[in-house]
Amino acid sequence: MLIQSILKQGVHMHPFHDLSGICLYNDNTTEMVTLFVQATHVERLLGGQSPCSRDERRMLQSLEDKGFINEHSLSCLKHLS
Amino acid sequence: MLKTFELALPPFHFQIQTDLPLVVDNLKAMYGHGLLDVINGHTHLAYIDYKLHITHTNGFRRFYKPQARFKCDQYEPFKPLNHSQAFAMLEWGMNWTIASYEMEHVVIHSGVLARGDEAVLFPAPPGSGKSTMTAHLAFNGWRLLSDEMALITPLTQSVVPFVRPICLKNQSIALAKQWFQDAAFSSIAKDTHKGDVVHLAAPVHHSSDLIRPAQIKAIVFPKFVANAQLEIVQLNQAQAMHQLADNAFNYSVLGDKGFNTLIGVVERSACFVITYSDVQDVQAFLEQEVLSQANDIVGEHYA
Amino acid sequence: MPEESVSNHQPAIISMHTLQHLFVHPEDALGFDSHTWSALIIVLRHEKLLARYAQRIDVAVGLNTLPEFVQRHCRSAMTLAERHAKQVHFELSELAELMQQSSQTWLVLKGAAYTASGHAVAAGRIYNDIDLLVDKSSMGSAERTLVMNGWLPQTIDDYDQAYYRQWAHEIPPLRHGYRGTMLDLHHNLVPPVSGRAPDMSLLFEYIEITPQQIPVLTLPAMTLHSAIHLFFNEDFSASLRDTTDLYLLFNAFSKDDWESVVMLADKTKFTTELALAMHCVSELFYITLTARQQAYIEQHTHRRQRAWLLMALSSEHPVIRPPGHWRYSAYAWLRGHALKMPLGILLYHLMMKTGRAIMQSMFGQHIFTKQDQGTQRVSND
Fold first, then answer.
1. Helix (H, G, I), strand (E, B) or coil at B296
2. Is A10 an interface residue toward B (CB < 8 Å)?
3. Yes or no: domain B106-164+202-301 corresponds to CATH 2.40.128
4. pLDDT in tens, A23-80
5. Which domain holds residue A60?
6. Can you tell me the distance from the alpha carbon of A48 to that of C41, in angstroms, rounded to the nearest whole number?
7. How many domains does chain A have?
């Protein structure tokens, strides 16, 4: 799943050129968040290809709570067993 | 008596009204001939951007622990302070005014110094020694664009000078007075929320220093630790963005334009956290490793 | 360095007339010199009108015809206003969900409704807060739902708390936990204690839904509320902006809208407020009234009342304020209070406020404020 497909309307994403992470900007709330992981990693988590650690799950949940990504887009997360 | 001044401080023109002799004396010491007396309504500047007032408070307080109040036009953003702090309050009021109303630039809480036209941003919280570093570089071959506010032209790396006195705190005051014996210092504002504060007049070598933009090449987050060895940690872009955004005043108002400006600056700059105890180490590192050699010719500014 | 060094004896004098004229004839912006502009920008910013004027001038002649520093201030103000509008659209879309869950009938009022409606009155409008109205029976559940979703009551002193709960038509303002947006929740247009609160079911017939699914009043009802808000109120500090709102609202009227607003004013017994709004807008912005409109104004207002209120609408800014203006604003203030509360309550309310005012004038304005170090630093709020 491409990360762009779950971003809420008004949310901009920038992957840094040095591959150090991505930055999301929510123009609705003017909040900005920097993630120290690459977009492909987030996409693997969302697509269920990678298991999700507790911290990663918390990070994604807070993106949802703060209106960066659509509700219910975390349904396919695979828990770290 | 209420006195009126005009202050040409590119890129802005201020009108300042005050009935505090302490403010008048400090304004004259800090801004020299940029400060223009308005006598009998004779104005000098073609226009005024912001009208500021710094005056005594009314009422009995005027006689018992007198206080000073700052207003930008009719609006009073701060609570009054002890009148001995009035000049520092005016300086902070100018910062507040620009941070609140200026949307033509992305404004970052940061020192800005340039060698030739290559600029380094020093965004840093109080206590990091940022102003000591600013003062050292400004008197040692670098050009001061600002001690507190970087005005970045949106969607570029270009930073516009807003040359203001350097705000020194606590222990750095004695150090600076020893380093720069010929420089002009303001009177001391004691026990402010930043501790004791003194302003140091910016060294201006050419009149073009006040208006010539510079291109951001590096972002340095300085950290002063007494007796520490120089330690330089390069930040990746995500880390640099994270730290820079904490210091940005108005990117949220500018929206995606502000966001893209910060991204552009971070991606085209070398970014470091530098732990230091000797400002000369930092200067040497920046000049030898970070900025281009071509700029060595700016030695003409050496104090 | 100053770009040009000129010596000028006379600081620019601008008058209320300058503001009125420029609003109606933005094309005449080309004729002002830099001194006049310096004063105009400061006054317009103070009146929360800089973005609105900038927008009108931009449409009329283009901002790039103005001196460079004027363009700079105009663009900054427009950037801020755009951010306000964006934020209002976003907050309303979030609030719509909460209000639908918790209230039978709800709608957006005043500034936020202007923006949501997309009418001309949205242009360059800036806000302090968002105003929502719910039917009285839903007040409790709406408030609970909002609080549970991060809209938290503000700390206000006990006297104000008691005032709101006992007498007002709204609850104390709510503030969104991390976005900081302010929200006022009302159940009537005016406080019921005034004895003039209209039967809200009358107003509820004048609700329309915007394309973004936000309920607002229809243009005529929105206009009547704007008039009530301005003339049934003690606070004239944004009155010039509110009068330009009324101008833009009236300006968008069709013939049917005129019939509709007169009928609604009649039903809700706010004919005086409507007549005052028509009078003040026509006087301030040089609009010729029809004989019927003129007759309506004369029927529902007194000559002296019209004259004094018109004066009270003038800018309070020291650059503008004519000598003796305080008398008119004191009149407007007293009138606003008298309208909302019976006399016994009025005395109580005035006494509490005035007591504090006198203490402040004796000991300096700020002796009562808590020492707040946080406000001394540079902040962008």
1. helix
2. no
3. no
4. 999 888 888 888 888 889 888 888 888 888 888 888 888 888 888 998 877 776 666 5
5. 3-79
6. 57
7. 1
